[in-house]
């Protein structure tokens, strides 16, 4: 239990740093999604199932989709 | 002269607001320490008070239902602002979407995703979840449709007008149960006593399941509206 928690926290910090450090936006978004997934499993490990469900649905699902659509708008350049 | 009157008026109003706020905060009870906090009360008596097995939903939609009403009002404000700023063209051109295999696979999977969303909403008072999480799952279906089947697939079937109606119906459900609380129980958003049943059954816990359904429709429709008004400009550049 404790070992698993430490491993998850290390990966959490790793993915957070990676999301900030990468220049490519797409990879940053994917690391942010991984961050949310690891955070979901941490919440579940601490028996907070409600928060885990909210984090999985919003952090890993909805945020990624909305950021992706924002990125595709930036990539296309001049809109209107 | 006119300016002086204006300044006097503004400073009078500010002083009055300060006075009112000071008196309001003076009415607050003193800090009583963590031992006599309300968390112990909720853990001990929450099931008997509300009939909801999931105490988090009991706090969200019964003890602190007014805060949840504020949260859904915030989402409503965000939806209104985004639609006002971003949606200029209301009729997008469709993009082609992904391949045949992905489309058929999603066609088989979609009913199960929707079933899971409705399960999370309707069992909010029994198992983890609730209106907010289930609503986001329902919004995710609409987002996956726009990715896999092309942008205008979901748009043609459920237009933004339909989604706006759904959102309004959800908000009205929430407010309606709040007003029913005033009429029947004497306080806004009070749990309706005559709707309670045996604990642990699907239709129990007073007005909590119905408020969950309202919040679920409101959040799902609102987030889908946000996503569709965000992607509207990218459609025409796909061709």
TrEMBL record, chain B:
Keyword Membrane tagged: yes
One Pfam family named in its UniProt record: MnhB
Residue stretches spanning the membrane: 7-25, 69-86, 106-126, 132-153, 165-188, 208-231
UniProt domain Na+/H+ antiporter MnhB subunit-related protein: residue ranges: 101-223
UniProt entry keywords in alphabetical sequence: Cell membrane, Membrane, Transmembrane, Transmembrane helix
Subcellular localization, as worded in the UniProt entry: Cell membrane
Residue ranges occupied by any MrpA C-terminal/MbhE domain in the UniProt entry: 15-93
Family of this protein: Belongs to the CPA3 antiporters (TC 2.A.63) subunit B family.
The protein, known as: Uncharacterized protein
The species this protein was found in: Halanaerobium saccharolyticum subsp. saccharolyticum DSM 6643
């Amino acid at each position: 239990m404790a070992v698993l928690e430490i491993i998850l926290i290390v990966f959490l910090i790793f993915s957070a740093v990676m999301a900030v450090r990468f220049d490519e936006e797409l990879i940053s978004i994917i690391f942010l999604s991984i961050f949310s997934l690891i955070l979901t499993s941490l919440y579940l490990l601490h028996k907070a199932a409600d928060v885990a469900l909210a984090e999985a649905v919003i952090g890993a699902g909805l945020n990624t989709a909305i950021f992706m659509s924002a990125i595709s708008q930036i990539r296309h350049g001049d809109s209107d | 002269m006119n300016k002086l009157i204006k300044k006097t008026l503004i400073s009078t109003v500010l002083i009055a607001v300060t006075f009112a706020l000071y008196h309001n905060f003076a009415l607050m009870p003193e800090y009583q320490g963590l031992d006599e906090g309300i968390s112990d009360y909720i853990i001990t008596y929450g099931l008997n008070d509300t009939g909801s097995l999931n105490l988090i939903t009991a706090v969200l939609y019964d003890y602190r239902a007014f805060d949840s009403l504020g949260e859904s009002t915030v989402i409503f404000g965000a939806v209104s602002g985004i639609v006002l700023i971003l949606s200029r063209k209301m009729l997008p051109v469709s993009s082609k979407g992904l391949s045949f295999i992905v489309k058929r696979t999603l066609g088989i999977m979609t009913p199960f995703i929707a079933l899971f969303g409705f399960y999370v909403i309707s069992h909010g008072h029994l198992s983890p979840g609730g209106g907010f999480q289930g609503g986001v799952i329902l919004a995710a279906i609409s987002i996956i449709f726009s990715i896999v089947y092309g942008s205008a697939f979901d748009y043609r079937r459920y237009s933004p007008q339909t989604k706006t109606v759904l959102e309004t119906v959800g908000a009205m459900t929430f407010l309606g149960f709040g007003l029913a609380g005033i009429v029947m129980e004497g306080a806004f958003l009070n749990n309706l006593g005559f709707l309670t049943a045996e604990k642990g059954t699907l239709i129990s816990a007073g007005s909590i399941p119905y408020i969950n359904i309202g919040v679920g429709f409101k959040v799902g429709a609102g987030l889908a509206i946000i996503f569709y008004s965000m992607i509207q400009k990218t459609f025409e550049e796909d061709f």
